[in-house]
């Protein structure tokens, strides 16, 4: 049994100006004078008393639960991660809880603050809008280990698993270029998200490397959902009907683009080749099946689970970074041939 | 402040044969003789002392968290439910935690038992293999309200949201019959699951009602995943090449069947019409887009969230049952025309 951090029954009693027995009665929910209850609760709050820390001491501060906070439960990239995270943790005796934050920074910070109450022993999170200074502060204040999937600011003291979406975009554009495509459009997600920003830069770099000119008419920005992909594809086709390929910042956007091309009577890949990103389950559900850049979602999930488990089992150590390399899965939406 | 249920610091002290101050020291994690720590922990365990009940009393027993235990995070039917459950609870100030139990009964019971430790204020669950006697006992012992989405044994004292998949199968077979199909195959899920059993019975009833003979060659049973649907479709096509329609027990099975029909060069719906069930997001991603029986996943999720919220806010009352009626969403896999 280790010495408790922070306030105890004794310091609460002192601050509230009541006896230790009174604090104990309040904590046990026994009938107590209202004024005493109020004073004890105010003192506990003032002292930043974290209720569960009492409870946790009874079983060595373990809840046997771990949480994964994902940006959007509707995006199968997180599903692929969950499928890998869950068995790793389950084998070690941990139950996995999931949060869907809708990429809302306030929600993410709320989950991080919740770690102070120790309803889980650790957290894996994937903040779509990046790790802000508030995140960094909340991670430092958390009383449980945290692993971030995604980019973090240089030097942030947290375990981190990331991929290299620049190389991923490059793989896709090299593939389209090798197939003879020269008017390669780009349907991106919001530029204020980490993947959106990185992929925008990567698209320009890849064009440069291939000696293709950058043409603003060939670029459209929307959100990361299917209907945004459809909207963006319609706008781009209207403006640049000679487009012969569409690079999409994720698979959902690509599905929206496929819908629009089909309704417009444009053949895929005959008229327009389409490439998605994330290589989710949906890529093989779509028809034509979708060529997609794999950013190793399964590998990233597995690596994050292992980093967390290591911290849970072996305690504090220097933060680690794992980088998962991208690859390209070629299917019918670029070659006309379904490999499966 | 209400009177605590169950054991308190006082009863633990009595059983352990130590002073109340000693129990308090142990609960606070202060340095204490090893023998005393051991005696207090054993007494606490013997008395079924639930650690967090102490903590909870500090803030009126609310965690502001609610959990949804779903059978399979990979099945978009649960995604549709989460999308409706989350906003209802969020608006009332609750954070939603998700569990994916893989339809494992032991996991489901574990989640129910976890309610005794009060890491959430309430639970919505969707047990794919049905509500067993163990579930009923665990629900009764839970110290938090529970809502079950799915069938429960008659008279189980729990809030319940269900659909009517028999009518759903009937809608699909009526539609196929009206289109002139007479050799209607059935790709079902496991018969020991609640939906599998109900849909098997419904298929026979619907054939009877339409005056079509039951033919065992036209029925194949697998699991509820896409690869099972593919396997089942291959087996059925091999045995009954004259099949002119496939009723599938969920959308994932139907997607597997579409893959197999495409590779076999069988036109959909020209040669074989295909109907799915659950009307998930995938139905409109597939090509041809999939006609599917909607079992009101979104409505069921919303109803479950509201029932739970009512119990959380207004306390105990008689259990309620909500039945959501099915409907049929007609798309290209039966008519050749995509309505969207």
Summarize the structure.
By secondary structure, the first copy, chain A, is an alpha/beta fold. Chain A has 14 helices and 12 strands.
Strand order of the largest sheet of chain A: 2-1-3-4-5-11
Mean pLDDT of chain A: 88
Q: Which CATH first-tier class of the largest domain in chain A would you pick?
A: Alpha Beta
Secondary-structure element string of chain A: HHHHEHEHEHEEHEHEHEHEHEHEEH
Number of domains of chain A: 3
Q: Largest chain interface and its two residue counts?
A: A-B, 57 and 57 residues
Give the CA-CA distance, first to last residue of chain A.
57 Å
Beta-strand percentage range of chain A: 15-25%
Tell me the quaternary state: homodimer
Describe the largest sheet of chain A: 6 strands, parallel
Q: Low-confidence parts of chain A lasting 5 or more residues at pLDDT below 50?
A: 1-5, 52-60
Tally the helices of chain A. 14
Kindly name the structural category of chain A: alpha/beta
Query: How many β strands of chain A by DSSP?
Result: 12
CATH topology of the largest domain in chain A: Rossmann fold
* Rg of chain A (CA only): 25 Å
Helix content class of chain A = 40-55%
Q: What is the architecture of the largest domain in chain A at the second tier of CATH?
A: 3-Layer(aba) Sandwich
Shape assignment of chain A: elongated
